């Protein structure tokens, strides 16, 4: 059960999903930053266009009020300059607004990608939690079964088993023919003869791994 916990497929999948989610969030931040930069540029151009229009309106009002010919000529020249400047600014403004619209679409798509990645991560986490809950229930059941078995085994034998299990990882193994069920190594002929000649209530152990050899009754 401990091995299954460590090797649960969802654990690796969660790591991948978290990295994917972080990448999508980074893309969203990049898209939002680019959109904000263009948005500020649009507002700057709007202010410039507004200033040009106000200057143009003022010049037209001055021309309408009359005045020296030189002043009228200067105002006319400035109006032409302002008209050209306004045209340039409006063209630039239109181009940037189109770029901003495209970036706004990117922001929307990036935000949707983040939401999708978050949903994927949550779904995998839910599967992991469900699997871990099943492991918890199974482990509890195994512990209860183990406690009943331990009570039926002599205390001294349990001590030997626990000591071997702590040292080797496996405390006992079924003897299958000449093969130890714990380490999967075959006993040599002399060791096998000793095992076969031992009394039924003797505790025999594998000479390779030290595990208790569980023998089938003759």
Automatic annotation (TrEMBL):
It holds the Pfam family Zn_ribbon_9. Transmembrane segments: none annotated. It comes from the Bacteria. InterPro entries: CT398_CC_hairpin, Oxidative_Scav/Glycosyltrans, Zf-RING_7. Residues 2-169 form the CT398-like coiled coil hairpin domain. Residues 51-62 have a biased composition (Basic and acidic residues). Residues 51-71 are annotated as: Disordered. Signal peptide: none annotated. Residues 179-213 form the C4-type zinc ribbon domain. This is C4-type zinc ribbon domain-containing protein.
